[in-house]
Task: structure prediction
Amino acid sequence: MEQNIISTNGRYEDADAWFDNMSKVMLVCDKSIIMHKINDYFETLFDRLGVGVIRFSDFSPNPLYESVVKGVKTFRENKCDAIIALGGGSAMDVAKCIKAYCFMNGDGDNGEWLKQEIEANDIRFLAVPTTAGTGSEATRYAVVYYNGEKQSVTSETFIPDTVLMDSSILKTLPVYFKKATMCDALCHAIESYWSVNSTDESKEYSKNAIDCILKNMDGYISNTEEGNAGMLLAANLAGKAINITQTTAGHAMCYKITSLFGLAHGHAAILCDRILYSWMIDNVDRCSDPRGSKYLADTLDDIGIAMGCDNAKAGAKKLVDIFERLELEIPVASEQELVVLKKGVNPVRLKNHPIEMDENTIDRLYHLILNGDNYER
Result:
């Protein structure tokens, strides 16, 4: 299914048609919605179009399964026709799961919906991303926590039929989070390109995302309407790429950095990928992609070319230059923290990486990523 994209800058008339033949919708959003002009659009929706809006904000940044159960109950009790997710990854995850579980058997007690097979349904789903980074509005993935454990849920029914890209929403983002979310989108595009799961289609999304990010980077950081609109599109394209391929070692290695040092996710991702790219160039002979080491070398060159460079080495240098230009912090890790990091890598994401990585390799890379230590090629 091709997503319908509605682009706007604080003017929402083009979104009205989406609400045809609806009487009530559920809006999944956090309380920060009141800071944005789009809040007025939803507050007046009933008066203008006769469509009631049921707001649901009872969820946390790392959403709990129990919050989804409450959301499904609210959806059912109010007999909603559609779901709207407005926010970052957490709002998207909650809305995706409400959509998936709203017709399932039972009340969701004791995690029962996590055990049932998700079936597609025709509930309309509109996403309004408030950051340009996660690409969650374009993916079949969601995360919730149950009994303290992360639950990764996957279904094609999670992908919204329509995305409203409102560049005015990004104007209030602090500059650090603009930088970090942009880096997340760039790392999604790069990692998707070198993933063992890459396809011609995913590579096209990645190339277009990289091109869009580089063209709009300056305008996005300086908060122009064109730059913000371009970065929303870039994040969506990168999301479409990882929807096909998933992420790789850079993301597997960045999650613990985020929690240990309090960094934004995209900041931690580019910390890793700026080192991984060069390391991979030096280690193509260890390729585990069935397509072979020559294919991997060509792929790394293609990424460099997509970044406007002649080859992989120039592309890797450009990625480092982007990181340095953004003036993002490089934390220094203690040996104890480095042990925690190397043991905290998700092996599932490592399976998507085109070079096999054992614990010693991961340890050397973490030393280089955070402390600038030399590594053995």
About this structure: The chain has 15 helices and eight strands. The chain has a mean pLDDT of 95. The first strand starts at residue 4 and ends at 8. Strands lie at 4-8, 24-29, 52-56, 82-87, 124-129, 141-146, 149-154, 162-166.
